[in-house]
Write a structure and sequence with these properties.
This protein is of the alpha/beta class. The chain contains 12 helices and 11 strands.
Length: about 325
């Protein structure tokens, strides 16, 4: 019986195919593409354009962008190019365009994450809100029957309780934009019981109580839960855990960046998961793809950002 409960296999790519269906009738999102000066970042933006997901505004050294396009045989017709001298200036200009209302999303190109995020978090000229920004991986895992969201694996190194609350609310909001009105959120630790010697278990319990008191809304929280208890009904049953979340989580909230990053990348590289990556909590969604990401990941990130940008406006 337990083995049947954990039979999560599905066709590879099915989850992202569902995302594609959800975005099919949405208007393309005006998007600043920051410094698309290599093949991967430029072609990812143009692929999203060709799928009617974004209207790209290419921000970077114009001649370099045109040279890359020529080398790739890419068509830049219909793309606005805003010339900037270097990557730092590209990030600042991209943020400025959002502040002016000319774009509703940002896509990272061929520059370091610190550069683009530095412009976004600038206290005077950036895109801050009252909410702490956090990164969310959206994974299509062949051995899991639905999207699996993991946070935070790229922005907040060692979040305290207040930051963790924002991280949880951000991922709940993203889940809503993807059509999940009551996401099941597992707050991870190494064990499923509260242990004063493990601070992550204390924070998990506090976050769940914050949800009970309406300080976090829109999701079903449980924690602490170990990874196996969060995604395996068999493991949860063996531990005697009675929970709406255990064994059926939509979201995994890691206690820190290191553990979140390891979980996500292990699922990608060992379990064959496809991934999308976005940052939520700024004025607009930010597609924060890695330089190692391929076109599929960049396209999936554009799908997720498109859903969230549309949700923000409703």
């Amino acid at each position: 019986m337990f083995e049947e409960q954990d039979n999560h296999n599905h066709a590879a790519g099915r989850v992202f195919k569902q995302l594609e269906e959800k975005t099919k009738n949405l208007p393309p999102t005006p998007t600043t593409v920051v410094h698309p000066c290599d093949e991967a970042s430029l072609m990812g933006a143009l692929l999203a354009r060709d799928r009617d997901l974004i209207v790209p505004i290419l921000v970077g050294p114009e001649e370099r962008i045109k040279t890359v396009a020529e080398e790739c045989g890419a068509d830049l017709s219909g793309c606005q190019i805003i010339d900037t001298p270097h990557s730092h200036a590209s990030a600042e200009k991209a943020v400025e365009l959002v502040r002016e209302g000319r774009a509703s999303a940002i896509m990272k190109g061929a520059l370091h994450t610190d550069e683009v995020m530095g412009a976004i978090i600038d206290k005077n000229l950036g895109l801050r809100t009252e909410r702490r920004m956090s990164h969310i991986f959206v994974l299509d895992v062949p051995r899991y029957a639905k999207p699996l969201l993991i946070t935070d694996a790229a922005i907040n190194i060692a979040p305290d309780l207040a930051v963790m609350a924002d991280i949880v609310q951000n991922v709940i909001d993203l889940s809503h934009s993807m059509g999940n009105e009551a996401p099941k959120v597992a707050i991870l630790s190494a064990v499923e019981t509260v242990n004063p010697k493990l601070p992550s278990t204390i924070e998990a319990a506090a976050l769940c109580k914050m949800a009970d008191r309406g300080q976090i809304t829109g999701g079903i929280l449980d924690g602490p839960l170990a990874f196996d208890n969060a995604i395996s009904k068999r493991a949860a049953a063996a531990k005697g855990i009675v929970s709406d979340v255990a064994g059926d989580a939509d979201v995994l909230v890691a206690p820190d960046l290191e553990s979140g990053n390891m979980i996500a990348k292990q699922l990608m590289y060992l379990a064959g998961a496809d991934s999308a990556g976005v940052v939520i909590g700024a004025r607009v969604p930010i597609m924060l793809t890695s330089r190692a990401d391929g076109e599929k990941s960049r396209l999936a990130s554009a799908m997720v950002a498109s859903l969230y940008a549309t949700w923000q406006m409703t």
